[in-house]
Amino acid sequence: MVNAYTKSRIRKIVRRFDLIPLRSDSIASLYRKNAIVRVRTESGTYAMKPFFRSNLLHTGTIDQIKTAADYIQHLMNNGFNSMPKWLASNSGKLWTLNQGRPFYVTTWINGRSMDNQEDFEKLGRALASLHTTSSRSFPLKGPFYDHIRLWQNHDRLFRRRMAKANQTNKWTRRWYKRFGESCNQFSDRSWTELMSPELVDLFVKEMIRPALIHCDITSLNVIIADDGQLFIIDWDRIKLGSIYVDLATALMNTTRFNPVLIHSLLNGYEELRPLDRTERKMISSLYRLPREAWFTARFPKSPRSRIMLDIMEQTWPLRLKAMDLLDEWVNQ
Questions:
Q1: Where are the transmembrane segments (predicted)?
Q2: What's the rounded mean pLDDT across residues 71-94?
Q3: What is the pTM of this model?
């Protein structure tokens, strides 16, 4: 993958978007050495990105990029401005095919990561705008992505792995012994709440009239541009799904369990889309689920699994306080 994109290949792809490259360089992500190609042209700087299918969906790569592009076009048509602009290729589509791989091109955003309350309020407003923009002009075609069922499967696998902890390495056995049962208790409480009639009814209503969700709001996927505008990047996993899942995972992935930042994100969200008590309870229940621990059960030999368990151990007291904070928020 180091030399995956030659200059001639990059030029061939971006010319389909009416761009003439002057210089290009590959940018790595946590998972790929050539995640994005930054392309400098006379008209500005752009991001050329390969599209990879999600293994969690039972559809092919082309079907997935077609669906994602339709959703992106819908957001652009309805004035959602917290994402980089996707360029249309000379075929009129928001993507092109090269050597069997879909690629798309967006404007490049220069900026910084989030670091203060105002930034997190902006993220809250951006998420609320995403969820309301996509749900206003229904219908949108596509399946509803059921995170709840997926997470229940991950939880069951985690419990099975815990029960066979003597077959794992010494370090993992120690972690399971110290934190595993607490993770199960958090999950039990959340599943009980999520199965309550009021939350089941709320989830059913979402399935009938779903919204678009980003599915991967992390600190690395949020940029504060040089002019102060917030942009969310990396929209490959955009889906029809639960806005409460999207908000709960954004809280977990960006705020570092900081009470001030948690409140800032939620306050920004509720400026545009106020939440009632039932909705708040849904978010609090989803936030409590120990998804990082479940990841390690799915990929026990991955180096990332050890890192995630280390982070969980280091942040454990902060996590407990954040859970309590959200419980208080539900009852305000």
A1: none
A2: 96
A3: 0.95
